[in-house]
Amino acid sequence: MHSLSLAFASLFFVVPPVGAGTIDFEDLPAANDSSQTLTEEYADRGVHFSSTDDGATWSGLSGGDPGGWQVDGSNGPTFVGFDGGSYIAVVNFDEPVQGLQLDVSRAAGIDAPNDFVMLVGYLGDTVVDVAQLHLGDVNLWTTVSMSLDVDRLVVQGVGLQGYRFGVDNFRWVGDESDEPIALDVDIQPGSDVNRVRVNSQGVMTVAVYGAEEFDVMDLDPDTLVFGPDEMERAHRNGPHFDDLDEDGFLDMLLHFHTASTGIGSDDVEACLMGETWDGLAAIGCDAVNPIH
Q: Pick from 22, 180, 286, 290: CA 20 to 30 A from residue 174's CA?
């Protein structure tokens, strides 16, 4: 069948990170008051803010520039403002997040040449990632990233008392990016029936079709298993490659010992599973018609 101080820092058989998300603060009325810091405004998304002081939302230049930050947010006018090097904000996530990024900019104030923003990422109680950014010009937003999964982020300014900066546009990837790559799998290519003689001592053929958006050469053949019993391929000198459907894209052809795949008389489909060379999970299934 073809078918953000000092604390922010394979799909199968692991707890996946929380779903993808973006927090740009545009859905909140800007507090424009340094005493009204963020707390549980995003608890329904599994995200919890706290800070020692400051860390309130402000309207930017296009919102009249209350506070005189001379900054507009990186994704709309609203941003979170920090005034001074001693303030620390913490962001806790109910579940680990992956690919966490946020935007940082200097705001109007003392121009300290050596000031920077430090981000520390934690997973559990362990520091897993640290990043720092020397601030550029006022209202010049730069993206800072965590390279590993984190469940807590701390943002802290380091420099002279009185300088100010803003953060905005938190975003991370999650379930969507962690979904397995969908493989276009064809059992017994050329057959619309896909009869599988469950006790056969022979081999069965499984094809993976390539396409413009997927190159079968990205698959690691040594990770590919097939059927309920996750059988490895029969021919270790394989797989074979050809343009089976003549669409101009290379396809992969694999063989598996039929009786070892675990396909039973009640099965209506069988699946090929594995990973890409980059460690991304991949899976594809096709219908089967078991016979004895």
A: 286
My answer on whether omega of the bond before 239 falls inside 30° of 0, hence cis, is: yes
Query: Over the stretch 237-276, which tens digit does the pLDDT of each residue have?
Result: 679 999 999 999 999 999 999 999 999 988 999 999 999 8
- Domain residue limits, the chain: 21-178, 181-291
Fold held by 181-291: Immunoglobulin-like (2.60.40)
Question: Within 10 Å of residue 276's Cβ, how many Cβ atoms?
Answer: 16
The low-confidence residues of the chain, meaning pLDDT below 50, are 1-18, 175-177
Beta-bridge partner residues of 167: 80, 104
Is the Cβ–Cβ distance between 47 and 193 less than 8 Å? no
Question: Token digits for 115?
Answer: 């000031």
First to last CA, the chain: 21
Supply the pLDDT for residue 237: 67
| E strand spans, 115-237 | 116-123, 126-134, 142-145, 150-158, 164-173, 181-182, 184-187, 195-197, 203-209, 225-226, 231-232
Which is nearest to 280 in space by CA: 146, 208, 182? 182
The CATH H-level (homologous superfamily) assignment of domain 21-178 is Protein of unknown function DUF4465 (2.60.120.1350)
| Alpha-carbon separation of residue 207 from 125, 194, 253, 269 (angstroms) | 45, 12, 5, 15
In the prediction, which pLDDT does 4 show?
Answer: 34
Q: Per this entry, what is the length of the chain?
A: 292
Pairwise CA distance, residues 11 & 17, whole Å: 10
Token pair 């599988």: residue: 196
Cα-flanking dihedrals φ and ψ of residue 115, to 5°?
-80, 150
Write the DSSP assignment of 176-189 as a string of letters.
HHHSPEEPEEEEST
Write the burial class of residue 171 (CB in 10 Å: 0-12 exposed, 13-18 middle, 19+ buried).
middle
Judge whether 21-178 and 181-291 match in fold.
Answer: no
